[in-house]
Amino acid sequence: MQFFADIWPITLATIQLAAMLGAAGHAMLSKSDVRSASGWVGFILLVPILGWLIYFLFGVNRIERRAREMRGPAQGLPRLASGRVAPEHRQQHELESLAQFGQKVLAERFDAGNTIIVLTNGDETYPAMIAAIDGATRSLALSTYIFNNDKAGKLFLDALSRALARGVRLRVLIDGVGSWYSHPSIIPALKERGINHARFLYSLTPWQMPYLNMRNHQKILVVDGTIGFTGGINIAEGNLIKDRPRKPILDHHFKIEGPVVAQLMRTFAYEWTFTTGEILDGPDWFPPLETGTSANTGIVARALPGGPDQGINPIRWTMLAALSEARKSIRIVTPYFLPDSTLSTVLSVAAMRGVEVDIVLPANNNLRFVDWAATPQLAWLIEAGCRVWKTEGPFEHTKLMTIDGIWSMVGSANWDGRSLRLNFELNLECYDRAFASRLDRLIDAKIAIAKAVQRKDITSRSLPVRLRDAAIRLASPYL
After folding, report:
1. Strand partners, 213
2. Which of 22, 23, 123, 277 is deepest in the core (most CB within 10 A)?
């Protein structure tokens, strides 16, 4: 007994030293951002036992390893061959270098011949989506962050049930966190109806970190492999503005037809395989589509999936490249604006170069602490020459970006660290003057009813308020 009494402190110290050095080494080797690496190393070395334990629970990106194992070509998932960088579209020449850069960031082809229809709020989006579901004959893939058990959710539940009764192959993917946004959850109803569904990273075990780490924030609906929908709208009755919901949400979604739909379907197939292990393949999911690479009509577009399993997030890097290429205008609409220092610097430099930079944010944010964290940075951007606008009225959840009236990006990603570093997201990168002009008109309408934010509005606030915002900003990479 005395032997064990003498040996256990040495054993514990040995375990502590080995775990501490192992965690510190892992952080130095795996964290690409030097500030993140140094922060974790300092925490591990200065906080005995708790430091390395918290790192192993919250600092290790287990998804990257698992995703890379499952996402390779050996899994049999269909891949679209890389096409030429710039399709034969005259309007593309101005930003051809941006397209060339984009091809290096993500070897996904730009396809011409796409039609993209803008849908406003759930009032236009839900009927269009349900009509497409009711027209399905072979397959239906639906991915959403939130699928509430409310009026909107029941509309989709009934439509999915009708499709199942017709013999349509259904796959429904809901984020593990998003599935709990309504009580009771929609999951029991999906089970009762026999709808094939799965929850992305759903687990209550600490090492899966369901409430703190990666989430599937994508919004995808693909019907028969030929009609697609994506954008920012979840399935929740707050989007049904005409019904005067208690917490209204303004937003936009997009209906897509053309070859880029196959890229949406492939993104869904990856996440479904990642979650369930089932591979979706064959003509039901991937019917032959015209490539559109030589078409001289329609929108040139490609899908940009982004996630923590990628060494370089193509959404963030494409944003950076587009901001650098801008010569006339940069227009951004987003509900959550917490760009990292690099994005903020590039925005400031663009404004100082003489580019007109407009950033449109909601005055009434559904996440107040995100608004607090964003406020200090706005003063610096305004000082650099950016124009910041805040829309009054219902919460604006829209995500739009245009450059020089020709290039645009729409989808699920916000301008924050969670979307651009932690979440699985999907955006569309589009080259088309008419489509960019359509989005610019939407942005003009939002600015027309918005209030310009002045630097003095931020700097003149009381010291306690400014300290609160500065303190919350320290957590911005995870908000």
Report:
1. none
2. 23
HEC profile of the chain: CHHHHHHHHHHHHHHHHHHHHHHHHHHHHHCCCHHHHHHHHHHHHHCCCHHHHHHHHHHCCHHHHHHHHHHCHHHCCCCCCCCCCCCCCHHHHHHHHHHHHHHHHCCCCCEEEEEEEEEEHHHHHHHHHHHHHHCCCCEEEEEECCECCCHHHHHHHHHHHHHHHCCCEEEEEEECCHHHCCCCCCHHHHHHHCCCEEEECCCCCHHHCCCCCCCECCCEEEECCCEEEEECCCECHHHCHHHCCCCCEECEEEEEECCCHHHHHHHHHHHHHHHHCCCCCCCCCCCCCCCCCCCCCCEEEEEEEECCCCCCCHHHHHHHHHHHHCCCEEEEECCCECCCHHHHHHHHHHHHCCCEEEEEEECCCCCHHHHHHHHHHHHHHHHHCCEEEEECCCEECCCEEEECCCEEEEECCCECHHHHHHCEEEEEEEECHHHHHHHHHHHHHHHHCEEECCHHHHHCCCHHHHHHHHHHHCCHHHC
Tokens 């489509």 correspond to: 435
Which stretches of the chain score pLDDT less than 70?
1-6, 8, 29-36, 52, 57-94, 204-213, 290-297, 475-479
Tell me if 63 sits within 8 A of 71, measured CB to CB.
no
Residue 190 tokens, joined? 């999906």
What integer pLDDT is reported at residue 4 of this predicted model? 52
Return the CATH number of the domain spanning residue range 113-300. 3.30.870.10
Nearest Cα to Cα of residue 263 among 85, 32, 426: 426
Count of other CB atoms within 10 angstroms of residue 19 = 17
Domain ranges of the chain: 2-60, 113-300, 314-478
Cα-based torsion angle of the residue sequence 77, 78, 80, 81 in order, rounded to the nearest 10 degrees: 90
Predicted local confidence at residue 98, as pLDDT: 83
Domain 314-478 fold is Endonuclease; Chain A (3.30.870)
Give the largest CA-CA distance in the chain.
Answer: 85
Closest to 84 (Cα-Cα) out of 292, 238, 280, 380: 292
Whole-angstrom distance, CA of residue 182 vs CA of residue 345: 39
User: pTM for this structure?
Assistant: 0.83
